[in-house]
Write a structure and sequence with these properties.
Length: about 260
């Protein structure tokens, strides 16, 4: 056992034991996350947002922010540029949500996707904010898979201008959305399913239920930042299950309405 100068054997053993416990907690969280899956039953319910680095222009990174419908996997919109901040991104996010009529915005932890102005606007629109677990792509599979697919259309070595990056992403959207138009198992294309009349859900009632779930799970899970984020995720999942818009499975077994406790 390696000890720092001046550290007693007791403190060294205590330090090693704490590191082992932390490693065990990380391993168990990873295993639990891998077994847990959320299936969205309908399009227009959850919009995912993820960022992708597309290249460099004058030593500044070109980045793209990609919007995708989780239920149908259709690419919806993009925002490509250099030095995009939350003030420029927030209006774009709100426009996509208004056009799609989605109930949930799912992000992966980018600080620009968590701006105070955006959070206030989401509460006003009664849109739930779903923050995926950091460093666990399986929580946001549609967005992560979309980023891998788009990278195949980028120039080798990355784009050298915003225009080149934009045209590459446009080409990716055109090609990948053709897969979205193919007939599903039920015989209808995703586009036809998307065009079907949606079941009208009272957005205010759904958001009220989400707030009730969130308060309950926060009381049960604790007050730390990690616990609050986990409670928020479970509240969104429980709300979607309660309104028949999603199925949550652990180990392939669907969970009941009390999904947040698991």
């Amino acid at each position: 056992m390696v000890r720092c100068p001046g550290m007693s054997r007791y403190l060294a053993e205590k330090f090693v034991a704490s590191r082992k416990r932390a490693a065990g907690r990380r391993r168990r969280r990873k295993e639990a996350a891998l077994e847990r899956s959320v299936e969205i039953r309908e399009p227009g319910v959850v919009v995912t947002l993820d960022g992708i680095a597309t290249g460099w222009q004058s030593r500044r990174r070109i980045e793209g922010h990609i919007f995708r419908d989780r239920g149908s996997t259709k690419f919806l919109e993009k925002m490509v540029g250099v030095g995009i901040d939350s003030r420029a991104l927030t209006p774009k996010i709100l426009k996509v949500l208004d056009d799609s009529g989605a109930y949930v915005l799912q992000i992966d932890g980018d600080k620009r996707h968590q701006a105070s102005a955006l959070k206030r606007a989401l509460r006003k629109r009664r849109v739930m904010h779903y923050l995926s677990e950091p460093r666990t792509p399986q929580h946001n599979p549609v967005a992560e898979e979309g980023m891998r697919e788009i990278r195949q259309f980028l120039p080798e070595g990355g784009a050298t201008s915003v225009e080149e990056a934009t045209s590459s992403i446009d080409r990716a959207f055109l090609t990948l959305n053709r897969e979205w138009l193919r007939p599903s198992r039920g015989g209808l294309s995703s586009e036809a399913l998307y065009a079907l009349p949606r079941v009208e859900i009272n957005r205010e009632a759904m958001y009220r239920q989400f707030v009730i779930f969130k308060r309950r799970f926060r009381r049960e899970m604790g007050r730390t930042l990690r616990a609050r984020r986990r409670a928020n995720r479970r509240a969104v999942e429980a709300t979607l299950v309660a309104f028949g818009l999603a199925t949550v499975k652990i180990g392939g077994v669907p969970l009941g309405p009390d999904v947040g406790r698991n």
